[in-house]
Amino acid sequence: MQTDRESRRQLRNCSMNEYVMKNGKKLRRGLTTGTCAAAAASAAAWDLLTGEVRKEVMLKLPDGQSVLLPVRKLQCAFGAEYAVTKDSGDDPDVTNGTEIRARAEFCYDAPENSFREEEFPGVCLQAGEGVGIVTKRGLEQNVGMPAINRIPRKMILSAACEALENSDREEEICITVSVPEGRKLARRTFNPMLGVEGGISILGTTGIIEPMSEKAIVDTIALQIRQKKEEGRTVLVLVPGNYGKRYAEQDLGLSSSAVVPCSNYIGESLDLAVASGFKKILLIGNLGKLIKVAAGIMNTHSRVSDARWEIMAAYAGIHGADASILRQIRECATTDAMLELLTEWKIRETVMEDLIRSLGQQLTRRTGDHAVCGSVVFSEQYGCLGQTAEAGEILEEMQKEQRREQEW
């Protein structure tokens, strides 16, 4: 006869692959908020309907894998409530360690702004404390609905419906998902920018968190781009990070609501903008990032590429810098330090003109005939370094669009 420990080990061995190799490191996968909510909902529904108290739940994930999760019963004045402590594995996720709860109770009228689906009769789903509410168009849910994405929603409703179908009860049940720390955690996520207020989102497409997932970042960028299109904007403004965002707002007078941070994923962001139907795109960034784009490097993360001095040395050499000058450029830690040297040698302006011209060509090559893309390049130390030929017209249209918004 198997011991409980042997049984658990066997279950885990036949479930999801817990580890993945990234950049030569063995990293542990985690579980999404959707998976945790579904496990808690399953335990709560079975308890409500059958009186069976559970300590763990075997949950089938969307891709067919299975995972065994420990669950904990909570004190509850009515219905049954369970909690799962979220384990994000080795992913730097702000929700790691937080408690995801689900309460099951009998109900006869679906609460306002709750989810009901024909596929899962007799079950409805609503948001409790710490689960955000959608306030902007462009998300998977309508405005006013809980920020529980489609696949997690299906997982939660399916788990509750399975319990209902296997019980002798005929009453309808309602599942309420809550996250006690959700309101506080949401401030550390993209939610306020995306239009989700009051808590975190219940997310997940496979049910599993891939450690350090670039896809999650790109998906967030894609969502923000779609939202700008939904808002009726004709010009998309992309910035690699906080420097670009601050320059766009303070120096160019652009509204923060018009700007989408694209991190290091400049090429993918341009592709997403074109796919969303934008015909005019303005990229605003620090030379430290955009010098790479001028050489055709569309992912500017230092782990992927760091050719700043090589690119700058090539342009300086074209404009007369000798070997001793190029060696000094190689020793510079920042592009601002390189600009200081170019200023001393009186070739900064000509080098920047040439480099920014190449930047414009690379952007045009990426977007093709589908969109006009311009760029404004600046330095923290030297301010505006120049802009591509297309940037002036795009910026002017952006400012007109902003004035129209203010008039409305």
Notes on the structure:
The structure is a single chain. By secondary structure, this protein is α/β, with parallel strands linked by helices. It has 2 domains: 206 residues, 2-Layer Sandwich (CbiD-like); 194 residues, no CATH class. 40% of the residues lie in helices and 21% in strands. It is built from 14 helices and 20 strands. It has a 5-stranded mixed sheet with strand order 6-7-8-12-9. It has a 5-stranded mixed sheet with strand order 17-16-18-19-20, with helices on both faces. β6 and β7 form a beta hairpin. The radius of gyration is 26 Å and the shape is elongated. The N terminus is likely disordered.
Q: What's the CATH architecture of the largest domain?
A: 2-Layer Sandwich
- Report on the biggest sheet: 5 strands, mixed
What percentage of residues falls in helices of 4 or more residues? 25-40%
CATH superfamily of the largest domain: CbiD-like
- Total domain count: 2
Briefly say what this structure is:
The chain is 40% helix and 21% strand. It is built from 14 helices and 20 strands. Strand 4 (56-60) and strand 5 form a beta hairpin.
List the helices and strands and how they pair.
Layout: H1 4-13, E1 19-22, E2 25-28, E3 30-31, H2 33-50, E4 56-60, E5 66-70, E6 72-74, E7 80-85, E8 99-106, E9 123-127, E10 130-131, E11 133-134, H3 150-165, E12 173-178, H4 182-186, H5 191-194, E13 196-197, E14 199-200, E15 208-209, H6 214-230, E16 235-239, H7 242-250, E17 259-261, H8 266-275, E18 280-286, H9 287-293, H10 308-318, H11 323-330, H12 335-344, H13 348-367, E19 372-379, E20 383-387, H14 391-407
Parallel strand pairs: 9-12, 10-14, 16-17, 16-18, 18-19
Antiparallel strand pairs: 1-2, 3-15, 4-5, 6-7, 7-8, 8-12, 11-13, 19-20
Helix pairs in contact: 2-3, 6-8, 10-11
